[in-house]
Specification:
The complex is a heterodimer. By secondary structure, chain A is α/β, with parallel strands linked by helices. Chain A contains 13 helices and ten strands. Chain A has a ten-stranded mixed beta sheet with strand order 5-4-1-2-3-8-7-6-9-10. In chain A, helix 1 packs parallel to helix 2 (68-84), helix 1 packs antiparallel against helix 6 (181-196) and helix 9 runs parallel beside helix 11. Chain A starts with a strand and ends in an 18-residue tail after the last helix. By secondary structure, chain B is an alpha/beta fold. Chain B is 41% helix and 16% strand. Chain B has helices at residues 41-54, 68-84, 115-123, 142-158, 170-177, 181-196, 242-249, 253-258, 274-286, 310-326, 329-355, 359-367, and strands at residues 2-11, 14-21, 24-31, 58-60, 65-66, 93-94, 96-97, 107-110, 129-134, 162-168, 200-204, 232-236. In chain B, strands 6-4-1-2-3-10-9-8-11-12 form a ten-stranded mixed beta sheet. A two-stranded parallel ribbon of chain B has the order 5-7. Chain B is globular. Classes of the chains: A alpha/beta, B alpha/beta. The interface between A and B is medium-sized, with 31 and 29 residues.
């Protein structure tokens, strides 16, 4: 796999960093008032996993330098990724090394308006810039993104911070030659942090220290994308999702901006899994806020059902909180959900242990299992 | 909780670093030819968990220097421990920061003659000293320890390294303050590393790879946080499974010859205890025969092996995969049966919990009193209920 032809293109409002990874032109667009250097650090970060998946050496055109510290980190990253999933092979990297320097003043954090990014933005007064990316986990059309930018610019300004909107075709790039987003999304954040080269860049965590598991962003992997110039910090693992939510709702003005919705980036539908999960947490915490309609009737919740081991973690946490508040009605529903998940798992185990997986095979005759891409676990059917 | 009265005393051949944690005098004895600074770093490292368990301020007598970097990292360590198990509360640490410097030239690595320590010792040519501790996981009688020292000294020399022996009463200290070793053993290693103040000290990873990390006393997220300006502490070897490490060690017969994994005896491998049997099983799965261990000719010998802990399950499954790859059907059959027994047991426990509301467990507890465990890396001592099988 080769990275070459790295270019900076300036238009009246943006500066674009692009490079060819094999034949794919990957680009990142930043606001024109930021300094971006024609270095290969960002491309090394995102091309690593595609190269490991192909088992091919990764050659970076010697005209474009990469950070020696990043090169060192990449060796350790390969050990971790390979250990997580041996389908990702260790590969040789060739590149010319030259230390990176800080390109933009300030300290940045990634931010999409959700729970994790908002929590980290609140936690560190030193953060001067919050980075909102289009093309990272979703690709919004221009008008939806500009609406999100407008709203979050005002929000950031209220916290005394500057919003940095970034656009990229990373999602398409990763679709074309990368592994599952579950393992690669941290490398995209790493690449944008390296391109902007702030002195420090926070990556808000999605899981706490107790529930950590192999995942695209992880406290062991994120810091390994650091360069001499930019320290990448995985932040927020000390707090669970409910604890973060509670922190955010201490400030109504902050909570007002919270967007967790899967269906729409600019408003919370209140009905999708993620919105409901947040409304459950708020009721369990005894918080009511304008951003979300109170979960006063539990009918919505009854119709809704969360499955999978990660959802079970959130479920159990909210159950504990509801019990502590004496909210017996909601606790009852959550307990039933948790039990249903447990029983389902027990049934799968019984099928495996006593029937040799016959039921699973029969099910697959009717429902074809989704073919998933290489992810953070060897079993491609995980997470189910 | 208070750290005070740190003393350096010398007697024949030994330099002792000791200090009081409340009224308990904790000591470390090093060979006299090492420089041991009279600093409080080591004591802060081991007193952190007891103080968090008591929920008390940890106060270091103001005349005793503590590394600024260590003090800066203590809040992060506390966040991790508290998140793992909330009985360990976040506390205030009061101490005067004064940066230390490297006290001894070279690079250390912890070593007890087992798989993890040997693997790390082989992996890094830069390691100059292998640090063998008495009083860390067990306290050996002086003649037994002396024998272990002698054997490992010539082994270290054969690798061009120096064996460094340390004795400590850490185990008594740990018991006195009521913390489980499974969360505190990393703090003991850190304290010895900080006492010696090499430029770098390796902590060989024990049991878990990156793919199966669980809260544990020594962990790639916690170990480095004990580093100071002088000493970088590196958690090493989490990239390799136990079988991979064993294979690496048996690449070289002379190295394998020194390997001691035995639970019963530190100076020879009995070949019959659980750990010896597992190693012999691993060698057969890897297709290695070596003079250090009697070959596992009959799989009947390992029929008694049970899979109780998650790390044992991972090890068994990995060994099963190797046996299948090698076409060793006899071994594969026995391993599959052991894993199946484990799965059935777990299934029964889950059925009891979900369908009978834990009735059988309650009945069992009337006859066999469940062991009262000290606070460890996870809130429920019966946890980890292994992570969902689909995860691994």
């Amino acid at each position: 796999m080769r990275v070459r032809d790295i270019r900076l293109t300036t238009t009246d409002r943006t500066i674009e960093l692009s490079g060819a990874v094999n034949d794919y032109r990957l680009w990142f667009r930043f606001p024109g008032d930021f300094v971006v250097q024609p270095r290969a650090d960002a491309f090394l970060a995102v091309a690593l996993l595609p190269a490991m998946m192909a088992g091919e050496p990764l050659e970076i055109d010697s005209n474009h330098p990469v950070s020696p510290k990043l090169l060192e980190g990449i060796q350790q990253l390969q050990e971790i990724y390979h250990c997580w999933n041996p389908a990702l092979k260790k590969v040789a990297i060739s590149a010319s090394a030259s230390p990176a320097t800080v390109a933009n003043r300030g300290i940045a954090s990634f931010f999409s308006g959700g729970v994790d990014g908002t929590y980290t933005a609140l936690k560190h007064a030193e953060i001067t810039h919050v980075i909102l990316i289009n093309g990272f986990d979703f690709f919004l059309d221009a008008s939806a993104f500009s609406q999100a930018v407008d709203r979050n610019t005002i929000f950031a300004a209220r916290l005394g911070k500057t919003l940095v909107p970034v656009e990229t075709n990373y999602i398409q790039f990763n679709q074309a030659c990368g592994p599952s987003r579950n393992i690669s999304f941290g490398s995209c954040l790493g690449s944008i942090a390296l391109a902007l080269a702030f002195h420090r860049n926070y990556v808000p965590s999605a899981f706490d220290y107790r529930t950590l598991h192999p995942d695209g962003a992880h406290p062991l992997t994120d810091p390994l994308f650091s360069s001499e110039a930019t320290q990448i910090v995985h932040d927020g693992c000390e707090a669970s999702r409910a604890e973060k939510t509670a922190k955010i709702f201490e400030h109504q003005a902050v909570a007002q901006n919270l967007r967790v919705c899967w269906a729409d980036m600019n408003r919370n539908c209140g009905r999708c899994n993620k919105c409901l999960r947040t409304r459950v947490a708020l009721r369990a915490l005894g918080i009511s806020g304008e951003a979300f309609e109170d979960l006063s009737s539990l009918d919505d919740l009854r119709k809704w059902y969360l499955t999978g081991p990660r959802e079970q973690d959130f479920l159990l946490e909210n159950l504990r909180l509801a019990e502590r508040r004496g909210d017996r009605e909601m606790a009852g529903i959550l307990r039933r959900f948790a039990r249903r998940n447990d029983l389902k798992r027990l049934a799968v185990e019984a099928d495996r242990l006593f029937l040799g997986g016959v039921l699973k095979r029969i099910k697959h005759l009717f429902v074809k299992p989704e073919r998933l891409r290489v992810g953070p676990f060897p079993d491609p059917n995980y997470p189910p | 909780m208070r750290i005070s009265d740190i003393q350096i005393s010398r007697s024949t051949g030994i330099v002792e670093l000791s200090g009081k944690v409340n009224d308990f005098r904790l000591w470390y004895r090093f060979p006299e030819d090492y420089a041991i600074p009279a600093r409080a770093d080591a004591f802060v490292a081991v007193a952190l968990l007891p103080a968090m368990l008591a929920g008390e301020v940890l106060e270091v007598s103001p005349d005793l220097p503590v590394s600024g970097k260590l003090l800066e990292n203590l809040p992060y360590l506390q966040e991790i421990y508290h998140c793992w198990n909330p009985v360990f509360r976040r506390i205030e640490v009061r101490a005067n920061a004064a940066d230390g410097s490297v006290a001894n030239i070279g690079i250390g690595s912890f070593f007890s003659g087992g798989v993890d320590g040997t693997y790390t010792a082989l992996k890094h040519a830069e390691i100059t000293h292998l640090v063998l501790i008495n009083g860390f996981d067990l306290f050996l009688e002086p003649p037994v320890f002396a024998q272990a020292v002698e054997r490992n000294r010539s082994f270290a020399a054969s690798l061009g390294k120096t064996l460094l022996t340390v004795e400590t009463n850490f185990l008594d200290f740990n018991a006195a303050f009521g913390v489980s070793r499974s969360i505190s053993f990393g703090t003991c290693l850190a304290s010895v590393a900080l006492g010696l103040a090499f430029r770098r000290a390796y902590v060989p990873s024990a049991g878990f790879t990156y793919a199966h990390l669980l809260p544990l006393g020594s962990h790639p997220l916690t170990d480095p946080l004990f580093s100071t300006e002088a000493t970088e502490i590196v958690h090493d070897g989490a990239e390799a499974s136990r079988n991979e490490k064993t294979k690496k060690i048996f690449d070289c017969d002379a190295v394998a010859q020194n390997l001691r994994v035995c639970w019963d005896d530190m100076n020879r491998n009995c070949g019959r205890c659980g750990k010896c049997l597992r190693t012999r099983m691993s060698l057969r799965a890897l297709g290695i025969s070596a003079p250090a261990f009697e070959e596992l000719r009959s799989v009947h010998e390992i029929k008694s092996l049970t899979v109780d802990k998650w790390e044992e399950l991972i090890f068994m499954e990995d060994s099963l995969r190797l046996a299948e790859q090698r076409g060793d059907r006899e071994l594969a059959r026995v391993l599959r049966a052991a894993i199946r027994r484990h799965d059935f047991r777990r299934f029964a426990v889950e059925c009891d919990r979900l369908l009978l509301g834990g009735l059988l467990k309650a009945v069992k507890a009337r006859f066999v009193k469940p062991e009262r465990l000290r606070p460890g890396p996870v809130p429920d001592p019966n946890y980890p209920a292994e992570p969902n099988r689909a995860n691994s």
